[in-house]
Amino acid sequence: MSREAWKFVSLGLTHHPSPITYLLLALALIISLSGCGKEPLYQQESYVFGTRVEITLYGEEEERAKQLAGQVLSDFDQLHQMLHAWKPGTLSRMNEIFANAPARASIQPGMIPVIQDASLLSELSGGLFNPAIGNLIKLWGFQSDEFKPVHPDPAEIKKLLQAKPEMSDIVIEGIEFHSKNPSVRVDLGGYAKGFALDTAADYLRSQGVKNALINIGGNIIALGQHGKRPWQVGIQHPRKPGAIATLELRDGEAVGTSGDYQRYFELDGKRYCHIIDPRTGLPAQGTQAVTVLIPPGKRAGVLSDVASKPAFIAGKQGWRDELKKMDVDQAILIDDRGEVYMTPAMKKRVAFLDAGLKFHESALAE
What we know:
36% of the residues lie in helices and 23% in strands. It has two domains: 3-70 and 191-364, Roll (T-fold), CATH 3.10.520; 90-179, ApbE-like superfamily (T-fold, Orthogonal Bundle), CATH 1.10.3980.10. It has helices at residues 3-11, 19-34, 62-83, 90-99, 111-124, 134-139, 154-163, 192-206, 300-306, 308-325, 344-347, and strands spanning 41-48, 51-58, 105-106, 170-173, 176-179, 212-216, 219-223, 231-236, 243-249, 254-259, 264-267, 270-273, 276-277, 282-283, 287-294, 331-335, 340-342, 350-352. The longest helix is centred in the first third of the chain and has 22 residues, at 62-83. It is globular and about 55 Å long. Strand 6 and strand 7 form a beta hairpin.
């Protein structure tokens, strides 16, 4: 496999690969790097946040690159333990306190900015991004490493909707926190990867790293470039193997995709994905994928993770309005028929690979 082919495969937004795929990719990496001794490219990968993670560094000596990438992956492991919604850790302990509202407990200092920022973004989205609906996500079986097709009791869904759990129910006073609503159960699955991207980018910059690419299951942030050319990534086709488009990332930009093709199940001929509409308590329908491109900024990674969720839920009728709330103007939506809607700014940046796609001209006008 050529260096260019490996780069494209490794940076694409992919389905969860099989163990054989992992072995083939590892062998491809060895072959690729052994055949290009002059190019100072180093990659290290792991499995964190329930997905494949890749750290790519350019222009660093191998030993230093190995140490830097190792530290990033170590930080990711710690964040994973802190932010996991149902396995033992900081957030799961907080959820136990929420369930016993108005019980109080001390809060880990590192969680304060996370909860505050997630609350702010939830408010900004008008509640379509709502990490407080963890009980609904659990009810649908998505708070599990392995999930089975299930139709939750409509009465249980209605009960949780009527309880109206919101991030604003969480109160932080000094070193203590509590919830005003026992139905709050925080799930940061739509925030944690983006937060980790920003954390890693800040660390690498602090160490003087100029060129790097950090990929957490398709949420990607770029530092600098790949030698004399920009970093190039692939956007996963929601219904076919491989990429539907390619995109060149500039220094500090981040890209993220929400799709119905990774965590989902099918029941009675209908697909149910893990993105729950807080208004209905049901998995969002009508959208296959939403990809957002975020310009450089302090929270580029977080926004690449968060901004696609409200747009995905709103669908083709309301996605542009949801993006405007978060000041995002570069995005793609693929509806349930596989048809493509794209903002004018994104049209200038992306190159589609599938010649059979249908584009809506009205969606491309200002």
